[in-house]
Amino acid sequence: MQSGGGARGSRADQADQRRAELLEAARRVVLERGLASTRVADIAKATNVSGGLIHYHFATKDDLITEMLRSTSGSEIQRLREIAAERGGAVERLDRILRFYIPASRSDQSWILWLDAWAVGVREAHVRTILLELEGAWIEILAEVISQGAETGEFTCDDPQGAAERIDGMLDGLVVRYTLHAGGMSRGRLLHHARVAAAREVGLSPATFEEQSPAPED
Q1: Is residue 203 a contact partner of residue 157, using CB atoms and an 8 Å limit?
Q2: 106, 119, 134, 217: most buried, per Cβ within 10 A?
C-alpha cells in the first residue's frame, strides 16, 4: 500500500511539475508574442511537446492563459503582502509598497504582461476577472496599511479605502505613460509623483517619503 501511494504521489508530482513548466513557457511566449497572438502550437513548440499533451493538462488555451495569469498574480499579491507586513512604521511600509508597485524599468516583464492583459481584458472575461482580483488585492493591502497608519497617528485619513483607490488609479495611469512613452518621464519622477499623491492622501509632506530613500534616476 505504501509503495502504491508513493507511486501515485510521484505521478502527481510529475504532473504538477509539467503544469508548472507549461505555465512558465506560456508566460515566455505571451511576453514575446502577446496574449492575443499566442497559440497553443507556439507554447508546444517552446516546450518541445505536442499540443495534445498541453490539452491533457489544460482543456483550452483560455484555461492555460487563465492559470498562467492567476499564478503570476498570486505570486505578486503574496510578495505585496510580505512587504506590507515587514517591520517598520506606516510611512516606511507605504513607501515600500509604492516602490514595489512601479516598474523596475520600461522593460519590466511583469508590467508588460499586465498592460497586455488590460487590452485583452476589455473583451475577454477570463482575463478581466484576474485583473480585477489583482487590483482588488492591491487596493485592499494598500488600504490596510493606510488604516493602520491612521490608527497609530502617523497618518491623517478618514477614508483609507477611497485613498487607496485614488492612489491605485493615479499610479496605473502614470505607469502606462512611463512604459509607453520613452523619454517622457523618468522612473525617479514616477516615484516622486506616487509619493506626492500618497502624501496628500494621508496628510503628510511629500518630503516625509523622500526621506525614506532617494528616488531612482531612470
Answers
A1: yes
A2: 134
